[in-house]
Design goal:
about 210 residues, alpha/beta, globular
């Protein structure tokens, strides 16, 4: 989706934590928040409410669904840019997350995705570092089941139903994270929560 972008100058650093469901994103994002004195950002609450209200991921056609995700990402980017004048920012997922889903499951080709996304990229606040978390499929499923206890999101259901989806999504996440700028990777499969957080901090600190 175009050439890698260059992170814009700002007072503080911007980090993204990403990965498939069940890899430990929220745990690591919170640990980095504490270490850095950062604000943690997710997709805006208004977007999440709308997504749930209209069943965006299951009832809306691919192209309008993609455009809504891109609009939400631009909004998130503006919020990040504003906060970076005051503190570091950690984002729990960013542009690579929805784009990877469309690569894996939609009928929109990667070339078409590139044409749609490219005009937006110059306006996007690029991460200083993206931390991609990975794990094996069995561990991811175990963590999801333990966390959701019967109520799972659409993406979580896809993971639980399909190791192929999980594998392809991880590949797409790696590719799209790398396109946005510097990326480091951490396999959380055999790590305790403490080890996961310490390892993530070591990678971010040295980047």
């Amino acid at each position: 989706m175009g050439s890698p972008l260059i992170a814009q100058d700002s007072t503080h650093k911007f980090f993204v934590v990403t990965g498939c469901n069940g890899v430990g994103k929220s745990t690591v994002a919170e640990a980095l928040r504490a270490r850095l004195g950062a604000e943690v950002f997710h997709y805006p609450v208004e977007f999440v409410r709308f997504r749930e209200r209209v069943s965006l991921d299951t009832a809306v056609q691919e192209l309008p669904r993609l455009l809504y995700y891109l609009g939400a990402t631009l909004h998130l980017s503006d919020l990040v840019r504003q906060q970076l004048t005051r503190s570091p920012v950690v984002c729990d997922r960013y542009l690579e997350s929805p784009v990877s889903l469309f690569i894996v499951e939609s009928n929109i080709s990667e070339a078409e995705l590139g044409n749609i996304c490219s005009p937006l990229l110059p306006y996007l606040r690029v991460p200083d570092v993206t931390l991609l978390l990975t794990t094996n499929y069995e561990t991811a499923c175990s963590r999801i089941r333990e966390r959701v206890r019967g109520r799972s999101s659409e993406a979580e259901r896809r993971v639980l139903e399909s190791p192929d989806f999980f594998r392809k999504r991880e590949i797409a996440l790696r590719t799209e994270s790398d396109r946005l700028g510097p990326m480091v990777e951490l396999d959380t499969t055999n790590l305790s929560i403490k080890e996961m957080c310490e390892s993530a901090w070591a990678l971010v600190k040295s980047s």
